[in-house]
Structures are given as structure tokens and as C-alpha cells.
Amino acid sequence: MRYIRYAFWAIVGLCLIVLSLANRELVELQALPSALADLAGVSPTVQIPLFVAILLGVALGLVIGLIWEWIREYKHRAAVSRKDREAKALQREVDRLKAEKHEGKDEVLALLE
């Protein structure tokens, strides 16, 4: 199974290298559309290779998705934590009751009573 995982990541890496080599031309990225930039009086632009723009877009999408899922699953993590605390409290209660039941009594004498 480990080799399949290594092969998969090698194929992904090879695809990223091929994508990067095929898209080395510089592109100009603008932070604002031209109409809005004229209205605001600023036009922040940057020139970067196309593969960097693609990879940054993918990375940003992954980060946003990760944060979205982490927030969405909060209620499940909270429920598991609550149930874990409850189970530990019940286990402590069982241990305490077992200790009280057998505290100071000999089993033979307990059977005679």
C-alpha cells in the first residue's frame, strides 16, 4: 500500500512539474477590475508566471476548504468531547462504587451476613 501511495504522489509531482514547465509565461494579475480601479484611483498589479497563479489558486482553495470543514465539523468534535468527559465521569463513579462495596469487608464474612 505504501508503494501505491508513493507512486500516486510521484505522478502528482510529475504532473505539477509538466504544468509548470508548460506555463512559464508571465501574466499580469490585477487586484481590482479596471473600472473599479479607475474609480478607486489605485490599480495594484503583479506579474508572475502562469503556473504560480494556478498553484496559488489551488493552494488558496485548499486552505479555504480546510477552514470551512473545520468550522462545519465543530459541533461533532464538541459532541465527542462531551461524551468522552461523560464516559470518564461514569467510569470514575463505577470505580468509586466498587471500592465502597468491597471496602473493609472480608468476602467470607460478607457471605455470612
Automatic annotation (TrEMBL):
Checking Pfam families in the record gives: LapA_dom
Question: What taxonomic lineage is listed for the species of origin?
Answer: Bacteria, Pseudomonadati, Pseudomonadota, Alphaproteobacteria, Rhodobacterales
A Gene Ontology cellular-component term: plasma membrane
The source's domain of life comes to Bacteria
The question of whether Ligase is a record keyword is answered with no
Any idea which UniProt keywords this protein has?
Cell membrane, Coiled coil, Membrane, Transmembrane, Transmembrane helix
Transmembrane in keyword set:
yes
Q: Which parts pass through the membrane? A: 48-68
For this entry, the protein name equals LapA family protein
InterPro entries associated with the record: LapA_dom
Q: Which part of the chain is the Lipopolysaccharide assembly protein A domain?
A: 46-94
Q: Tell me which stretches of the chain form a coiled coil.
A: 80-107
